[in-house]
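This is your field. Have a critical look at both lines of this record:
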Amino acid sequence: MTSAARPEKPRQSFWGLFNISFGFFGIQIGFALQNANISRVFQTLGASMDDLPALWVAAPLTGLIVQPIIGHLSDRTWNRLGRRRPYFLTGALLAAVALLLMPLSPGFGAPLLFAAGMLWVLDASLNISMEPFRAFVGDMLRTDQHSAGYSVQTAFIGAGAVVGSIFPWLLEQFGISNVAAPGLLPDTVRMSFWFGAAALVLAVLWTTLTTKEYSPEEQAGFEGAPKAIDTGEQVGALARKSYGGAAMWIVSGVIVLFVVGALDLGKEMLLLGALLAAYGILSAIAISLSRRGRTANMLSSIVGDFAGMPDVMKRLALAQFFSWSALFIMWINTTPVVTQYVFGSTDPASAAYNEGANWVNVLFTLYNGVAAIAALTLLPWMSRRFGQVTTHIINLLLGSAGFLAFFLIRDPHVLLLAEIGIGIGWASILAMPYAILASNLPQAKLGIYMGLFNIFIVVPQLLVATVMGTIMNALFPGEPIWTMLFAAGALSVAALSMLRVKSALPDNGAGQYRPAA
């Protein structure tokens, strides 16, 4: 006698998808304000250009630490607010406090130190909010709506990036002062941060108040959902591991530290070496705890889950690594490329340079706007028509073509066409990998796996910020245009690596990819 099939989750309407992801609009406003203005804040408070990378290290480091921890905890949480909502509401409130206090840094005794501290609080808080939102979509939606759900979330990411990036400029158009006395922040920056704090809290509150999470019992009743978190397999496998792997991580970290010193690489590479060694030490501790039967701890669970990542996640991780390498190359180098090759100046004090820098803001606004539109229209259609994996391959190649255009085009207006390809690729990077993961990962562990997936965003940032500079100085000194060729190549490699994901996940005919039986 066979048991009755379990029901699917209810299908969400457009407004259901809207409510589930609207909070991400506010979170992305916070990220956009941070990305566009923090260097300006630091320099206003006395930081030199050489100080900026070390001050900025909060961004990748907090994401690397916070997201797996929050993912682990949110998988195991259930209270009056639900499973994920307690975390993204708490993170939003903490981030709002940091946004309110950051512009007041000049009034404190050590303003630069205070601002750096606020950046750590801000980035950690935004990560506390962001990670559960990724898992929240997978929790709330049936499998055949994952592509649509993450596309709507990507649309809000693009829209939030546009609003957060352009808001200081808009305030200036309304007569708000964009200059200030030395050591003080302009009114446009201060008011933008305060606006961002309000927008962040209101957007996250909207999602919190308009959605109701499924209880653990309800989740267990849906098709394909496990009844409870099973950590025994990963932790058991961890206990059977030798210490050799942990030792290799430690040795790798020591080698990186030695190479950084020998080749005089960037300071951020010291952090990478330290992180590799630290992971090796933590792995050894986790193995020791597991061998002694002490498995009910966060460290063993997180290390066990990382070591035992599903194959689909490992394959996607390679594509994610190269995709985000290309993105960080773009964010770091677009301004010097456009000002030098399109506007003909490398002097930051010249009118031509500043005209080019302003045009970069237009380019970035366009690709974020394209991403928002593509996420709502193009990605869902392509996913239904071609499947998630093929959709991602096509869009990564479009992004690669956009980067290649920077290497060839010298007309600023024609460069707008390049941003269309980059915007479509950006939308796909933000949506498709997460839709594929949500369709293939254990429901009860979406939080921790989404958090661990963030590692393959952080590590490229650390590498690009250091190794790329060394490569350029050695091979192409004074010629930043070559970085765009590297970016185009990285996205092409990401597209090729997605072929491995497709071969492992047969199409079921509905645009969704599931593990082979």
User: Anything to note?
Assistant: The longest helix spans residues 311-342. The radius of gyration is 23 Å. The chain is about 75% helix and 0% strand. The CA atoms of residues 77 and 83 lie 5 Å apart.
